[in-house]
Every structure is written in C-alpha cells, then in structure tokens.
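Notebook, p. 212. Picked up where the previous page left off. The plan for this session was modest: take the two constructs that came back from the sequencing core last week, fold each one, and keep the raw output in the notebook itself so nobody has to go hunting through shared drives later. Recording the first one now, exactly as returned: residue sequence, then the structure token string.
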Amino acid sequence: MAKTSSTPRAKKAANPPAHPKYEDMIRDAIVALKDRKGSSRQAIKKYIISSYKLPDNTTTNNRLRIAINKGVEKGLFAFYNGPSGTIKLVKKEPVKKEKKEVEKKEKPKKNRQESNDKENEEAHNQNDQTS
C-alpha cells in the first residue's frame, strides 16, 4: 500500500488568464466589427484569435460557442437570423427614473379685464395731466 502523508500539500495558485471573459471579448468583437446586421461567428472568432492571441483549437471554439449561448440566455446578445445566423448586441433601454412631483406654487392669475382697466386708467390719467 502507498503511504499517505499526513501533511497537506500546498495548492498552487491558479494563474489568471491573460484575456478577459469570453463574453467581454465577444462584445468587443461585435462593437469593433461594426456590422449593421450583426457579426458572424467566424468573424468574431477571427477577431478574438488575432487580438487576444488565443490558440485556434477546439477548446477555444467550444468556449466561444458556450459564451455566445449563455450571452443570449442572459440577454446580452441576440441572434439576428436564427441560431446559426449573425449575432448582435442587445441595446439596453435606459431605466427611466421617476421624477418627484414638485408642487408648483400657484400664482394669482391676472384677468385680462383687470390689466386692460389698469392700462385704461393710466392712459386716462396721462390725458388728464396733459389737459
């Protein structure tokens, strides 16, 4: 039988990846490609591989596919022409904040008749002073 040591082994600290999350890379790729109808998977993959220097292998392909599907489920991306079509970013609608209703002070309204009466009185007074 193999001997088991009673001292626990120190775990190696996992190195963080040299690239951001796949969702972030896909978002950057779609924004950078600026296609009106969305970007294809091949174009996104090509952009990610060239700009983040990832290997072109099945692991990258699988992670890219999974990230796209999860992004669609979360509402970050949308398929423009079905699941095998192009991928677009979903525009987030800005959340409208409810404005507090401020009570406006009511100003006394001037009647047109009162303002006309004042003008007539002033004109009449001027006529009396001149004569």
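Okay, moving on. Second construct, recorded in the same format:
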Amino acid sequence: MEVNQESNQAPKSANDSDAQEDSRDNQDAKAQTAEVVDESSEQGSLQETVKKLEAENKELQNKFLRTVADMENLRRRHDKEKSDLAKYGNEKLLEDLLPVLDSFEKALATGEGDESQSYVEGVKMVFKQLTDMAEKHGLTGFESQGEEFDPNLHQGIQRIEDESVETERVKDVFQKGYMLNERLLRPAVVSVAVPATKD
C-alpha cells in the first residue's frame, strides 16, 4: 500500500515542475515585452526631445541672424549720420553768410561805373575771399538766368508771358540760389517766362 502512494506522488511533482517552468517562461516573455515597450516609449520620447531641440536651435539661429542684420543696419545708419554731419554740420553758418554775399554782389553791381576804382577792387577782393572760403566748406552758387524753370531749384515769384519761349524758363534772377554739397541750401528767387497763350 505504501508503494502505491509513492508512485502516485511522483507524477504530481513532475507536473508541478512543468507548471513552474511554464510560469517562468510566461514571466520572461512578459518582461521582454515590457522591455520592448519601454524601449519603444523611450525612443519616442527621445525623438520628441530631438525635434524640440531642433526647433529651438532653428529659432535661436533666426534670432541671431535678425540681430546681425539689425546691427548692420544700425552701423550703416550711424555711418550715414556721421557722414552727413561732416558734410552739412556748417549748414547754419553758411546760410547766415548768404545775405552778406548778396550785399557784396549788389555793391559790386552798383559800383562798376564809380570813379573810385580802388574801392571796387577792394570790394571784389573781399567778395572773392568770402566765396573761396564758402566753397571750401561745400557752398556753391548756381546760375539760373535763361535756364529751364525747376521748382526744386527755383522759387518763382512772377510769371511773364513770352512768345519766344516754348517751355517755362527763368527770365530774371532776384536772389541767387546756393547748394551745400549736393543739398539745396537756398532756392533762387526768380521771375518765370511762360509760353504765351494763344487766343
């Protein structure tokens, strides 16, 4: 009777062993699956981080390029302002000098027939010194008599019909115009000959 009990117990322990192995295999398979899922999840997270960093990098590059462009524009503007200051810094001084030049020109025009030639020569010399000094600082007068009327250079105060002209032309100059380098300092004050209207 005892032998039968032992023989019944032996197959039972073999079945238990198989069950344990199956359980271990299942656990290993689950662990491997979990690892695969973890790795996949980790890769997805890394890809998102890489994309985010790439976007941030691109934004920083754009900001850097914009800053460089702004600095270049600022440098150019500063250089232009500096150049303009050097060119036109004495504008007010020369503008105040213009009436003096006008007076000299008038004195020369009225004194041409005067007997005191030495006086005229003296005035001419002073006028030349003044104009040379002004030209050295960029001031130049421009001739307008007979030129085509240009509202950018001439200030017309009188219109005179003239059959001999086909376009508006400067007839008389009452006050000379002056340029400071390439900038108009004062327009010439003129009368304008205009084509006669046909009845």
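Notes on construct two before I forget. Residues 1-10 have pLDDT under 50 and may be disordered.
Flagging for discussion at group meeting.
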